[in-house]
Amino acid sequence: MKQDVVPVQIRGILPANSGCALFVGNDKKVFVINVEPQMGSVIGMFLRDEPKERPLTHDLMNRIFQGFGISVERVIITDLKNSTYFARLILQEKNELHAERKIVEIDARPSDCLALAAAQKRPIFVSSSLFAQVEDMTEYLDKINDSSSDAESD
User: Fold this and answer.
1) Between the CA of residue 1 and those of 19, 87, 90, what are the distances in Å?
2) Residue 146 is part of which domain span?
């Protein structure tokens, strides 16, 4: 899947009425992907390198990947259709018998892609066409960050 992409990061996580809002973007624009509350919590744990009592599903996936010499190369959030985001998980397999590497691209939920990228500290991208069409939520995220900074200084 060759396409122009924009590098982004997870800029914030906020509980919301319908689940959890993930603020994804860069210095130019931030947009929101809504995920289930549990996924927001899991992604936050990975971003903070927070220890967990027991392995979570994404920890299990990472351990299976490691066992087979597979790593997440990158994640691409590709499209938005009917209020649903789509993403691709780009995996790389290195075979100890050959110097070659194999790249596999898998259709996956953005929340799973973001959790795996956060767990492995791998890059996240958004297709340029999608990035151009999403609503910029930078001002909203800045207000949230400002109000939380004010609350901390009180």
Assistant:
1) 31, 12, 10
2) 5-153
User: Alpha-carbon distance 76 to 70, whole Å?
Assistant: 17
- Residue 124, domain CATH: 3.10.690.10
Amino acid 1: pLDDT: 46
Find the mean pLDDT for residues 79-101.
88
Cα 85 to Cα 140: distance, rounded to the nearest angstrom: 20
Q: In this structure, what token pair is assigned to residue 94?
A: 């290195």
Residues 24, 31: contact at Cβ < 8 Å? yes
C-alpha–C-alpha distance, residues 60 and 7, integer Å: 27
Rounded alpha-carbon distances, angstroms, from residue 83 to 75, 79, 80, 86, 134: 20, 10, 6, 10, 11
pTM comes to: 0.87
Please state the rounded mean pLDDT for residues 38-49: 94
Q: Which is nearest to 141 in space by CA: 54, 8, 12, 4?
A: 12
- For residue 8 the two structure tokens come to 């982004």
Structural domain total, the chain: 1
Residue with tokens 């130019």: 28
Tell me how many degrees the CA angle 128-133-138 measures, rounded to the nearest 5.
95
